[in-house]
Amino acid sequence: MDYIEALYEEVRGMQNPAEAVKMASYMKNKFTFAGLRAPILNHIVKKHVKMYGRPDLKIETVVKKCWGYQLREMQYIGLYVIDLLKKDFQEEDLTHLEYIVTKKSWWDTIDHIAKHHLGHYVQSFPETKNEVIERWINASNMWMNRSAILHQLSYKERTDEERLTYVIEKKIDDPEFFIRKAIGWALREYAKTNPDWVRTFVEKHPDLSPLSRKEALKHIK
Asked: Could you tell me which PANTHER family the record lists for this protein (predicted)?
């Protein structure tokens, strides 16, 4: 039994039907759940790392296996395993990140991928960042667009304001809720680092949707 299969067997063996119903309902019944919430999944992964060491796997292998399972928790497990492996990202792993953004897509996986994986990837390969973000923000897939908007969430002082401006302006007229919410979230997060910049940005962009504007200024006094 390999590393991912062992994780799956543990998840399958700990199923909680009552919680599974609640979790599926919260995700609008888009996925089948085992009923295991994040703290339990984190514990499972940490236990396996302690017992068997850091997984010696390619990103491609993790993606193919974890996104092949029906249980939604296995996609979450996949994200946690990629967290362990991302320091060894190869340039070609962008293909696999694009796959998990466009397959079995919903905000519960997308937001983690954007912040922890895409954000890390473009920092690891800075010579590709403009090309990558340009392609993702202009893609026909809404989740790729959202990821491009959110990829700097953890950057703080390292935030590229020009790039943040670019991705927001590209989608400022988009009526999609998840895009408008992402724009507001990206601005709100950066406001923790540079509230004056965000306040000025909002003032200079009266065409921001009410939702984006509200989110952006949420914690600015």
From this structure: ARMADILLO-TYPE FOLD, DNA ALKYLATION REPAIR PROTEIN
- How far, in Å, CA of 140 to CA of 121, rounded? 21
Domain boundary among 88, 115, 136: 88
- The single residue listed with the structure tokens 């965000």 is 198
Distances (CA, A) of 42 to 18, 30, 176: 20, 22, 32
Domain of residue 63, residue span: 1-88
Mean pLDDT across the chain: 97
Average the pLDDT over 85-92 and give the result: 97
User: Residue 171's pLDDT band (boundaries 50, 70, 90)?
Assistant: very high
SS3 at position 189: helix
Is residue 197 in some structural domain?
A: yes
The model carries a pTM of: 0.96
**Residues 218, 38, 10, CA angle at the centre, nearest 5°?**
170
Q: How many domains in the chain?
A: 2
Whether pLDDT at 127 is above 90: yes
CB proximity list for 25: less than 8 A, separation 6 or greater? none
* Strand-pair partners of 71: 32
For residues 28 and 13, give the distance between their C-alpha atoms in angstroms, rounded to a whole number: 24
E strand spans, the chain: none
